[in-house]
Amino acid sequence: GMTNPEAVVEPRVGGRHYVLMRDPTGKEYPCDGAILEFVPDRRITLGQGGGPFDGATVTITVEPDAVGTRLGVLWRHPTAEMREAHLAM
Asked: Which of these, 27, 64, 59, lies nearest to 46 by C-alpha position?
């Protein structure tokens, strides 16, 4: 149910990534962070700063497979409580 009315990605290690998430009630969750790893056309790791996942990282991978592209998304949370809260979302 979230929308992302704003997003910025600077595709390089050390570059900025920013996403403004908005829930159905209009409440906004700005998430600002840095790109920790960038392999063009294969993998990007984002460090989360601010927002509900402050301190977490997400690694997004893409790999060709027999029928198209396989997408992988791996979240790492600094605490079990954050992981559980994220799962509940």
From this structure: 59
3-state secondary structure of 50: coil
- Span 53-70, average pLDDT: 94
Sign of CA dihedral 38, 42, 47, 49: positive
Computed over every residue of the chain, the mean pLDDT equals: 93
Residues with Cβ within 8 Å of residue 23, at least 6 apart in sequence: 1, 2, 29
At 80, is the pLDDT very low, low, confident or very high (cuts 50, 70, 90)?
very high
What local confidence, expressed as pLDDT, does residue 29 receive? 85
Q: What is the largest CA-CA distance in the chain?
A: 41
Backbone conformation region of residue 13, classed left if phi is above 0, alpha if psi is from -120 to 50, else beta: beta
- Of 88, 82, 6, the C-alpha closest to 48 is 82
